[in-house]
Automatic annotation (TrEMBL):
Role, per record: Catalyzes the interconversion of 2-phosphoglycerate and 3-phosphoglycerate.
Organism domain of life: Bacteria
Protein name in UniProt: 2,3-bisphosphoglycerate-dependent phosphoglycerate mutase
UniProt binding sites for substrate: 8-15, 21-22, 58, 85-88, 96, 112-113, 156-157
An annotated Gene Ontology molecular function: phosphoglycerate mutase activity
Signal peptide: none
Site (described: Transition state stabilizer): H155
Catalytic activity: (2R)-2-phosphoglycerate = (2R)-3-phosphoglycerate
Native source species: Nitrospira japonica
PANTHER family (alphabetical): PHOSPHOGLYCERATE MUTASE
Active site residues according to the UniProt entry: H9, E85
């Protein structure tokens, strides 16, 4: 039986400041560092065969701290921008509350939570899924079909796209999905890559 753990990075400095982050490479906050270590504690007892992460430091640091905590630092790790957070375009760096005042709560909610509406200059969740899912199918899933145990450290929206695929969620269902920072989400898969069970650790 294959297992894959999805781990959203710990709180970043811009999460703390309530800013749109996207592809801007910001570090973890102090709380985020602790969340990454706590995630590692929850992963004790797992032996991972390999790990995948985005190219952004907040995901890389979360992965490093979690693996340090469980003493598995020699793991093969593959970094790819396909797992990067959704790119928020012109909104990147803006405070979310100030953006809502400028454009209206409803418009910002549409940009953040709709499936296929792009923020100005940015990606929709649909766009994000269109780079995450082919990467999963081509690069990650073959290891799961061999029965490996995989850790993926990434971001709220790239992981939402992956959960949508794993759980076969509708567009409406995925809009309500929120993945907390630093909370490992375990999926157990059958020999064909279908989900048998999932739970937060």
């Amino acid at each position: 039986m294959a297992r894959v753990v999805l781990l959203r990075h710990g709180e970043s400095q811009w999460n703390l400041e309530n800013r749109f982050t996207g592809w801007v490479d910001v570090p973890l906050s102090e709380r985020g560092i602790q969340e990454a270590r706590n995630a590692g504690e929850k992963l004790r007892g797992f032996t991972f065969d390999r790990a995948f992460t985005s190219v952004l430091m907040r995901a890389n640091e979360t992965l490093r701290l979690a693996l340090e905590t469980i003493g598995q630092t020699a793991l093969p790790i593959q970094k790819d921008k396909a797992l990067n957070e959704r790119m928020y375009g012109d909104l990147q760096g803006l405070n979310k509350a100030e953006t809502a005042k400028k454009y209206g709560d409803e418009q910002v909610k549409i940009w953040r939570r709709s499936y296929d509406v792009r923020p100005p200059g940015g990606e929709s969740l649909k766009d994000t899924a269109e780079r995450v899912l082919p990467y999963y199918e081509k690069t990650i899933k073959p290891h799961l079909l061999k029965g490996e145990t995989i850790l993926i450290a990434a971001h709220g929206n790239s992981l939402r796209a992956l959960v949508m695929e794993l759980e076969q969620l509708s567009r409406e269902q995925v809009l309500e999905l929120n993945i907390p920072t630093g909370a490992p989400l375990l999926y157990e898969l059958d020999g064909g890559g279908k989900v048998r069970s999932h739970r937060y650790l």
